[in-house]
Design a protein that fits this description.
The protein is mostly helical. The chain has one domain. Strands 3-4-5 form a 3-stranded antiparallel sheet, covered by helices on one side. It is a multi-pass membrane protein. Keywords: Membrane, Transmembrane, Transmembrane helix. It is found in: Membrane.
Length: 234
């Protein structure tokens, strides 16, 4: 009887030791954990955080530019690009909260991943357009000749041409401060939107290259191939 009791107590102890060896000593599990993370963060946590921070920065800067002059066009104040990127980051956070299923067996998981990929591509296009508009406006402002007339700043590309286009900035008492502030904001918009576009491009590249199999979302998942291999060995 004593030998039977001792064998029963030894069995769970042996099982615990085997589990510890598999989790701690097996290098494959460590490699899997590293492959499922990016800079120590689970995908898409790092990219979603970057998109949220950059999107808020672009949006705030766009509204600040709109407050300088009421005559600025929407394309010159690209807060719309920042709002799109913020929405993309929220979809990334939603994807992180969904538990992972192998081979995308759930419709919710597939839909959210597809939305994140498509919206990231849309954010990429919006940021590239914002960079193009800001660069075009900045190049024009470097050639402007401005005068203050009735609390508005009137600028021309060519003062010698009487039929040349005149750009009017309303609610601007000082043309010097207006042009300097706009040049600074346009440069910041170009840099921020360019970085945001690169982040969105990285998201699309990672999701397209790995086909949603290398990075996981939600709870830790062990592949079915590994369990099938272990069963065959047993």
């Amino acid at each position: 009887e004593k030998s039977a009791d001792s064998s029963k107590t030894q069995e769970p102890a042996m099982k615990k030791k085997k589990k510890q060896k598999k989790t701690k000593g097996d290098p494959k599990t460590g490699q899997e954990e590293e492959s499922h993370t990016c800079c120590g963060c689970r995908f898409p946590l790092l990219f979603a955080l970057l998109q949220l921070a950059l999107g808020i920065s672009v949006t705030v800067l766009g509204f600040l530019m709109a407050g300088i002059s009421s005559s600025l066009l929407v394309r010159d104040t690209p807060y719309w690009a920042g709002i799109i990127v913020c929405v993309v980051s929220l979809v990334g956070f939603v994807m992180l909260c969904i538990s992972y299923q192998p081979d995308e067996k759930t419709c919710v998981q597939f839909t959210v991943k597809l939305m994140y990929f498509v919206l990231s591509a849309l954010g990429l296009v919006a940021c590239v357009l914002a960079v193009a508009f800001a660069a075009h406006h900045y190049l024009q402002m470097t050639k402007f000749t401005c005068d203050t007339i009735l609390e508005s700043c009137r600028c021309k590309l060519d003062t010698a041409d009487p039929l040349g286009r005149t750009f009017v900035y309303q609610d601007a008492a000082d043309c010097g401060s207006l042009t300097s502030m706009l040049n600074l904001y346009l440069l910041l918009q170009m840099v921020l939107n360019l970085v945001t576009a690169l982040v969105c491009l990285s998201v699309c590249f990672v999701m397209w290259k790995h086909r949603y199999q290398v990075f996981y979302v939600g709870v830790r998942f062990y592949p079915l191939t590994a369990t099938e291999g272990q069963q065959q060995k047993v």
